[in-house]
């Protein structure tokens, strides 16, 4: 009898659960039908207006984290796309004396007058700054490289004035690169500083030139004599307006 009572109660509760479940299912089906009906109305209208249909999940994600703006090269500052032009020392004018020397050197060494302009301007500027004769600087160019800015010796001397970079990094500057001394303006500036350094160390032009040529032990000072002879020839050219 007791078992029968328990069974009745179980059947009663099961029936109640099934009733509630069926009722909930009908409500859910009704909601889904209503949602489908609304979507069928909204979707054609959105498509007709050209509006995108965004899911609720996508809309929530975009609300939480807005999309990143696109970055284009055109939006970069112009300074980052193109380096500012470097002002060349060739913008300055040569003195009449150095103009005559330029013409002479171009003919004798078969070098473009245009290519000679920048280093000769730098020679005049360095000579004024350091208290040197510009023709001395030009004479060193003639002896060292015959005015070839890309010349390089077996011991590593580079450029117009054949400067050895490992000995003169302090004169080249903090931005020195392996190609720095192949720039004519840089090379002439550094070469003039080396001449001045020799004068400061040894007190005479001959000794300074021997120091420059790495020949301090040469008692005959042959390197210095070659440079001074070329300087004298250039001085004759500079003095003659018809040279």
TrEMBL record:
Coiled coil: none
Domain Transglycosylase SLT: 125-221
InterPro entries xref list: Lysozyme-like_dom_sf (IPR023346), Transglycosylase_SLT_dom_1 (IPR008258)
Transmembrane segments: none
Pfam families according to UniProt: SLT
Recorded superkingdom: Bacteria
Family: Belongs to the transglycosylase Slt family.
Name under which the protein is recorded: Lytic transglycosylase domain-containing protein
Species this chain originates from: Denitromonas halophila
Lineage: Bacteria, Pseudomonadati, Pseudomonadota, Betaproteobacteria, Rhodocyclales
